[in-house]
Amino acid sequence: MYFPGLDILLSILYLILLWEEGKSSFRTHRSHKKQALIAILWQLPGFILSLSVVFGLDRLTDFAYYFIFILELWQTPIIPLVSVIPVWTIMDKPLYYYLLFLMVPIMAIYYYLPARKITSENS
Amino acid sequence: MNVLNLLRKMVTNRSYRMLLFPVTFIVLLTLIGVDNLQLVSGSRDSVIYTYANSFVNGEIGTGYGSASLDKVSFSDLEPGDIVLGGWPNCAYGRFSHAGLYVGDNKVLEGYVDYGLSLQDLSHYMEYSELSLLRVEASSEIKNRAVEYALAHQGEMFYPVAFKAGERYWNCSKIIWQAYQLQGIDLDAINDLWIAPESFCASPLVTKLYEKRN
Q1: Of A96, B25, B83, B145, which shows the fewest CB atoms inside 10 Å?
Q2: Are B154 and B108 a contacting pair, CB within 8 Å?
Q3: Rounded distance between C-alpha atoms, residue A98 and residue A84, angstroms
């Protein structure tokens, strides 16, 4: 039933829904601080996992490899979009590897952005 | 046009929006389930069954253990052979990792942090479970399989990659796909996913060597 490409469509749909949810959330709370806090809390598992890997805290545990593994699973909704990027290697690692980390703040900002848009439209 | 309007309504209306993904998920899950009924009919070899069973027993992830250096010789390996390694408590069966031997003591493997990449064969010595498999095919076919796999170096690793598609891979899928395209299906039960264990169960391989914990 699964066909390649369906994942990309669902991923785009996810981003559209997320944008709408960001708008809806800001209209409810009317606070930039709250909207930013929601975005950060939403991505908190991603922040913890990525910072643990970047600063080597994962290596203090017996399950170091699981951190990056779980981070990739955490990014599952947008992995289809990451999978279409070119196969480039930077410092011995593929480009998508770096995106696993970068997508955490990017997704948080993406959720916060509708608040900025609504504010600028209203002013 | 009506469909587009309905979609727009579903996206912009919060009550509908909240339901969109759960409903999509359930519909897809049902369709995939119906499409793979052969896995429900008591097949205890399926990846899903193995995962569920391991989960009940508290075995999650790739398993872990301390390196147990083995005196196995890899000198008999030929390009196209499959190397399996495993740790105790692995969630998806006896083996947690698979690699395709490409010659010169190198294996093509998949890791999150390296994607599909060439690694030294020697690290397989550390696994507490080890199996070396030979696919029953001509060296021409095996070379083509190796070429295909090598052409995908650097591509994305994703642990639960479906078998269809060529954008993400796991360590087993690249091997399965490389042989599948040569007309050799190494997944005997036609599963949704492919795990290292599947190669062991294939009637199309012979065991060259096996180490048990």
Answers
A1: B25
A2: no
A3: 14
Q: A90: which strand partners? A: A93
ipTM of the complex: 0.87
**Chain A residues with CB-CB distance to B115 below 8 A:** 87, 94, 96-97
B24 closest CB neighbour out of A10, A68, A69: A10
Of residues B182, B180, B156, the one with CA closest to residue B170: B156
List the pLDDT tens digit at each of the 213 positions of chain B. 577 787 777 777 877 788 888 888 888 888 877 777 766 665 666 777 777 777 777 776 666 666 666 677 888 999 999 999 988 877 777 888 999 999 999 999 999 999 999 999 999 988 888 999 999 999 999 999 999 999 999 999 998 888 889 999 999 999 999 999 999 999 987 888 888 988 988 999 999 998 877
Tokens 């508290």 belong to residue: B58
Interchain contact, A1 vs B159, CB within 8 Å: no
Residue B147 CA: distances (Å) to CA of A46, A62, B109, B156, B199: 36, 36, 14, 18, 19
Q: Are B204 and B82 in contact (CB under 8 A)?
A: no
d(CA B50, CA B48): 5
Compute the distance between CA of residue A23 and CA of residue A43 in angstroms, rounded to an integer. 17
- CB nearest to B61's CB, from A16, A17, A66: A66
Q: Which B residues in the span 13-42 are in contact with A, Cβ-Cβ below 8 Å?
A: 14, 17, 20-21, 24, 28, 31-32, 34-35
If one counts every other C-beta atom within 10 angstroms of the C-beta of residue B164, the result is 15
Token readout for A78 is 């947008």
**Interatomic CA distance for residues B8 and A70, integer angstroms:** 33
Q: Which of A16, A62, A68 sits opposite B112 (nearest CB)?
A: A68
Beta bridge partners of residue B99, listed in sequence order: B83
Q: How far apart are CA B109 and CA B130, in angstroms?
A: 15
Say yes or no for a CB contact (<8 Å) between A20 and B11.
Answer: yes
pTM score: 0.87
